[in-house]
F-box/kelch-repeat protein
Amino acid sequence: MPALVCGKKRLADPNMDFTNLVQLDMATRSKSNSLLTSQAIDDFYSLILPGLPDDVAKYCLALVPRTDFPAMGVVSKRWRSFMQSKEFITVRKLAGMLEEWLYVLTIDGEGKGSHWEVLDCLGQKHRVLPSMPGPVKTGFGVAVLNGKLLVIAGYSMIDGTRFASGDVFQYDSYLNRWSKLANMNVARYDFACAEVNGMVYAVGGYGMDGESLSSVEVYNPDDNKWTLIESLRRPRWGCFACGFEGKLYVMGGRSSFTIGNSKFVDVYNPERHSWCEMKNGCVMVTAHAVLGKKLFCMEWKNQRKLAIFNPDDNTWKMVPVPVTGSSKIGFQFGILDEKLLLFSLEEGPGYHTLLYDPNAALGSEWKTSLIKPSGLCLCSVTIKA
């Protein structure tokens, strides 16, 4: 690719690798230090790459491979601040540099613990995430917001007693580190959560004393704050949530006011700040994922079929899961490259990850994949950043 040109001035090659970028930055600073006053030096160092306009410098940094981002984050506060901003993802998208990675929470050997690991679309493992701060928890929610992984609330067992938490931790996929976000207003576990229009919603679940909850709150990353909004019409727990066309859908789980598992779907409209209800949801859902504009579910009562929900007309269709790859029942889902991955919860001889491509020709939707976590998958999220 030729060098960028701004007016009559030739600028840095956008294909320059990370090492050369750092060397250019340091060499330019060293050469210029003797020529600048104290104030000018402060202004000079505030530039992302001295000698380049910030818009061009931002584009150069956006071209660096994602595997080098943790090293980039220690170069300067200016670089780190840019990498943590929404703008960084926007620039990488414009440059065609977004990379899709799968973050899988998987059980350690002998089932004594768990860890997050990162896989790409070729199944290559890039890293194991640092341990999350705080006590070991379960019943938590996960969401992706602005290229970052959020692990929300949950509960811990201390001396045989459950303690609900309102803690929220964020994993920065660029800097490879965890940080603490604002606490929720209501500690909860076994609740539904999802991102809609750049906000994260937490719905229902169990509270501090094990009571079922109808409360709902929303997280705004711009001010790092959780705000309570209109509650559900009835308490709901063990449910899940997803976003479609700017609305929040909550389904599955149970309610205090229904016998057995609830088929009702609660739908929240953020523009109207109100809930409405549908009656044809999925029940006893063991796995779910949103792919494109459709929701894919697997119900406990029939784990050899995919239940696919189309929000355009609120209809469901069933797709049989072939025995190729795994004849076992019980799967967790992953999404990569616009395809659905089915990770078996029971490994057997000749086990392979199943792959469903909704855009493939009729009869060719199912294949097997080499993408496979190191242990059994507890949950996964896809981060494109």
